[in-house]
Amino acid sequence: MTQLSSSTSRVFAAPETLDSEDTLDPPPETFDESDSDTFQMAPKQKIRIKLRSYWVPLIKDSCKQIMDAARTTNAKTMGPVPLLTKKRIYCVLKSPHVHKDARFHFEIRTHQRLIDILYPTAQTIDSLMQLDLPAGVDVEVKL
């Protein structure tokens, strides 16, 4: 087993001062948003619509209605983005008294979609308010 002396091992050595040739680079200049065409700011106004339903055809129809209403008013839209489907499973005993091994399993799947409407106008909001969405769709709107 070889033992390294403290002069050859730099692992535990004290930090040394920088030589003139080992100087650090100056920090980069700050990014100026006005000079770059590629810099895009986040929209100041945005409507976020979250749809929930147990039936996929209902949620697809509702998304199509919302997208059509927003596009007719020249609002920029993003979506529909499919979010995770929540699955709730209920276990029910078949027998009223004994036979614990015999069970029914029921599940409810909640499908979710997300739609963002960027730069909405008053016409966009009016057209969204006049929509008649199906009863099986839960709509949550955030500004």
From TrEMBL:
* An example Gene Ontology biological process: translation
Question: What Gene Ontology terms describe what this protein does at the molecular function level?
Answer: structural constituent of ribosome
- Biased composition, class Acidic residues, residue ranges: 18-36
Q: Name one Pfam family in it.
A: Ribosomal_S10
The record, for SUPFAM superfamilies, names: Ribosomal protein S10
Which chain positions lie within coiled-coil regions? Answer: none
* UniProt keyword annotations, A-Z: Ribonucleoprotein, Ribosomal protein
* Annotated Small ribosomal subunit protein uS10 domain residues: 48-142
Q: Where is the composition biased (Polar residues)?
A: 1-10
Q: Which domain of life is it from?
A: Eukaryota
Cellular component aspect of the GO annotation: ribonucleoprotein complex; ribosome
Region Disordered, as annotated, extends over: 1-37
NCBIfam families assigned to the protein according to its UniProt record, in alphabetical order: PRK00596.1 (NF001861), rpsJ_bact (TIGR01049)
PANTHER family cross-referenced by the UniProt entry: 30S RIBOSOMAL PROTEIN S10 FAMILY MEMBER
Family that this chain belongs to: Belongs to the universal ribosomal protein uS10 family.
Output this protein's name: Small ribosomal subunit protein uS10c
State the organism named in the record.
Hevea brasiliensis
